[in-house]
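Hey,

Quick one before I head out. I ran the complex with magnesium ion overnight. Inputs first:
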Amino acid sequence: MASERTLSIIKPDATRRNLTGKINTKFEEAGLKIVGQKRIRLSKEQAEAFYAVHNERPFFNDLVSFMISGPVVVQVLEGEGAVAKNREVMGATDPSKADPNTIRAQFAESIEANSVHGSDSLENARNEIAFFFAQTEICP
Ligand code: RTP
Ligand code: MG
């Protein structure tokens, strides 16, 4: 399998509870390398643009409010099959349905405050990485 990059976001529920290091350990133990990382506060416009695919969904406004409620850590993860591997490490969207040992099973508070985002395809990963990172901010 080829080396890939994927976009990860540690969400406000996790930064609030000081879980950045514990979540990063899960990525690193799975063989994902953190090759870009910054802690930022999303603007409402940025959050709306990032989640534009969900703008017809009933949870859209709540999701945007949640994502701007505190700092997030945006990250580029690199490794063999990084897109799928990261989704595996994250676990299902709803933490009550996530496999044990996944980030969401261990740390998420709810289906919305579920601690992490990860790109769901290689094409989305490329677009999502470009949304947050300049080439010079990624250091493999
Ligand atoms: P993500 O995009 O954050 O990696 O998560 P995902 O693919 O597992 O979930 P997705 O269906 O893309 O939904 C994006 C985020 O919206 C929130 N959500 N809330 N209240 C609800 O029913 C609901 N459903 C989804 C979650 O924060 C989810 O991660
Ligand atoms: Mg998604």
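Helices lie at 12-16, 20-29, 44-50, 60-67, 82-90, 103-107, 122-132.

Talk tomorrow,
K.
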